[in-house]
Amino acid sequence: MLKRLLLSLTLAGSIAAGAPAIGETDPLASWNDGAAKARIVAFVKATTEKGGKDHVAPADRIAVFDNDGTLWSEQPMYFQLAFAIDRVRALAPQHPEWKTKQPFKAALAGDMKTLAASGEHGLVELIMATHAGNTADEFAQAVRDWAKTARHPKFNRPYTELTFKPMRELLDYLRANGFRTYIVSGGGIEFLRVFAEELYGVPPEQVIGSSIKTKYELRDGKPAIVRLPEIDFIDDRAGKPVGIHKFIGKRPVAAFGNSDGDFEMLEWTTSAPGARLGLIVHHDDEVREYAYDRKSPIGKLDRGLDEAGRRGWLVVSMKNDWRTVYAPPR
Amino acid sequence: MLKRLLLSLTLAGSIAAGAPAIGETDPLASWNDGAAKARIVAFVKATTEKGGKDHVAPADRIAVFDNDGTLWSEQPMYFQLAFAIDRVRALAPQHPEWKTKQPFKAALAGDMKTLAASGEHGLVELIMATHAGNTADEFAQAVRDWAKTARHPKFNRPYTELTFKPMRELLDYLRANGFRTYIVSGGGIEFLRVFAEELYGVPPEQVIGSSIKTKYELRDGKPAIVRLPEIDFIDDRAGKPVGIHKFIGKRPVAAFGNSDGDFEMLEWTTSAPGARLGLIVHHDDEVREYAYDRKSPIGKLDRGLDEAGRRGWLVVSMKNDWRTVYAPPR
Predict the structure, then answer these.
(1) Cβ pair A241:B216 closer than 8 A
(2) A58 in contact with B at a CB cutoff of 8 Å?
(3) CB-CB contact of B8 with B1 (8 Å)
(4) B316 beta partners
(5) pLDDT of the residue at A9
(6) Which residue of B has its CA nearest to A248?
(7) Interface contact flag, A267 B215, Cβ < 8 Å
(8) How far is CA B119 from the centre of its chain?
(9) Cis geometry, peptide bond prior to residue A158 (ω within 30 degrees of 0)
(10) Considering only CA atoms, which of A241, A179, A297, A62 is closest in space to residue B214?
(11) Do B225 and A204 count as a contact with CB atoms less than 8 A apart?
(12) A216 vs B239: CB contact, 8 Å cut-off?
């Protein structure tokens, strides 16, 4: 928000001074000049230019962003999984049975191989034990508390500092041009809402994600939203267009992802008539972040790479297209 | 939107002319002067006055409105049920078995008594047969087509003309004061989204309602959202706070309803600290609309009437507090 305000002040100032309005401050300063950046700028110009053939009314300027691997890192494991494992440790004293019961035993031992071997069933069990049973307020507080102390194993920085500066600029740039920016994540909606406003300028009502069921009840006479150990909705793959339709009720004009989990979201967005932008962040930067795609169990990008060309999707090279990877703390 | 624009122009004009900013144009002109109107105005002043003890930041100014019976009429049956019955008639040629099968036989005959006797199971069957199986776009078109020709049995006007003028003014008034207005309806989200923007100035992403499941699939190579004959979410009673939490992720500061189906939404909204407004529209106007409350199967208002006093909820008398009931076509 601050950056956007500064930008508009700068532009207003330069207009008032009779200087060229554009050029002094580059809203996409962390993007190297090149085809990727040019394509983004051209899309925004085409969709916002009054009277242009690809003009999109402000009410329809909807841009959807995946989160894990698109707005922040996702290696060596989804940050929410790191939270779940840390929470198993925090809750372990109340669950002595976890010492011998999988997948909790593996989580407590940091034995990722056994944890992975527990499969989807094991992961769901882990999530339910660490994400349900409390109220929504209590859960949000647990996430906030965790984020204050947890550190990423490779970078030794808070997870919340590992957001991508070029993508944050892109969010700001789109909003400055009248787009509403939504996050559409395979991760948990209530986990992400804790961070989305501060990190990305995206308010809670513009965060869509996977969810567990909740119920409304009086606890000690006070109304509360209580989190239940039951899957409500998986906002991944073909679930992403479903989530978008449910929450927004409109088809986006721009979609940003990084894995095959975003394939259907990009397909849904870009197969409608008119100017559309589909963008895939390709993690090919082992030095500054990670390099992975077709063979990675996390953030697998295979079909997307194969089909990006014929579908007109822009594949962004983290290594070549980004001047900077991580943003400074906000 | 037009009204809001005109209002702001009027205010701007009167400020420029040095005249008092308030008073010339009453944004709540369809409300009789009295305690109800004064309470609404006082709430808006308290929550928007800078530096006031009850000031609410613009991002938190969230107001939630029930639809049936609160924003438009709901007698002698929910308008969506009228749509479902008309749609049974429209689809009947493709379903010869409906001639002898309940609840379809009753719907075709207009036999409301037998239809009601088919109970919740019968109604769900009716809704699934008339609301599922097609794509989201096809469904929206069917609703639009229906609204063009269907007429309300008592007033012989299109259903879409039976919105409440005082409530539309209230929506505009709140928005002019920085509130975001949401509809939180027990009715179907996709049914309501067809009308919400035009009738109430509420965009699709601010409509929350009951839903059936959908799936994303390619139909003849084109992506589509397909509606499935399975309940996804019932946005009524204790489901309303759940829906609000899921879609908005914040607790509202004002809630507007008319029946006990809105009780938990009002409770959730008004039991938080700070200035809160809970309002119940009481249908006591047999001449201009309908009179019903404790004993009505549709829009039953019983517990709400009993508890409004001690909970500080404002009960609005349609007969005494509203100068006008229906708005002219927009």
Answers:
(1) yes
(2) no
(3) no
(4) B281
(5) 36
(6) B205
(7) no
(8) 24
(9) no
(10) A241
(11) no
(12) yes
What are the pLDDT digits (tens) for A99-110?
999 999 999 999
- Helix residue ranges per DSSP H, chain A: 2-16, 35-48, 79-91, 104-109, 112-117, 119-131, 136-149, 165-176, 189-200, 239-247, 263-270, 303-311, 318-321
Q: How far apart are CA B23 and CA A48, in angstroms?
A: 38
Residue recorded with tokens 């009481």 = B282
For residue A63, which residues of chain B lie inside 8 Å, CB to CB?
none
Asked if B140 contacts B195 with a C-beta cutoff of 8 angstroms, the reply is no
State the alpha helices, DSSP H only, in A177-225.
Answer: 189-200
Q: Checking DSSP bridges between strand B254-257 and strand A207-219, what pairing results, if any?
A: unpaired
Q: Which of B99, B72, B248 is nearest to B165 (CA)?
A: B72
Residue with the two structure tokens 């990009």: A266
Which SS3 state, helix, strand or coil, does residue A226 take? strand
The secondary structure of residue A1, as a DSSP letter, is -
Q: A189 to chain B: which residues are within 8 Å by CB?
A: 246, 249
Nearest alpha-carbon partner for A129 in A78, A94, A179, A100: A94
Instruction: Say yes or no for a CB contact (<8 Å) between A203 and B239.
Output: no
Q: How far is A138 from chain B (nearest CA, A)?
A: 14
Contact B238 A217 (CB under 8 A): yes
| The one-letter amino acid at B233 | F
CA distance A283 to B51: 48
Six-digit token pair at A237? 């793959």
Enter the ipTM. Answer: 0.91
Pairing of strands B207-219, A314-317: unpaired
Give this prediction's pTM.
0.92
With b for 16 or more beta-carbon neighbours within 10 A and e for fewer, the A296-310 pattern comes to beebebeebeeebee
- Closest residue in B to A247 (Cα–Cα): B205
pLDDT tens, position by position, B152-195: 999 999 999 999 999 999 999 999 999 999 999 999 999 999 99
3-state SS class at A295: coil
Residues 6+ apart with CB under 8 A from A101: none
A222 touches chain B (CB under 8 A): yes
Side chain identity, residue B123: L
Question: Which among B59, B216, B249 has CB closest to A193?
Answer: B249
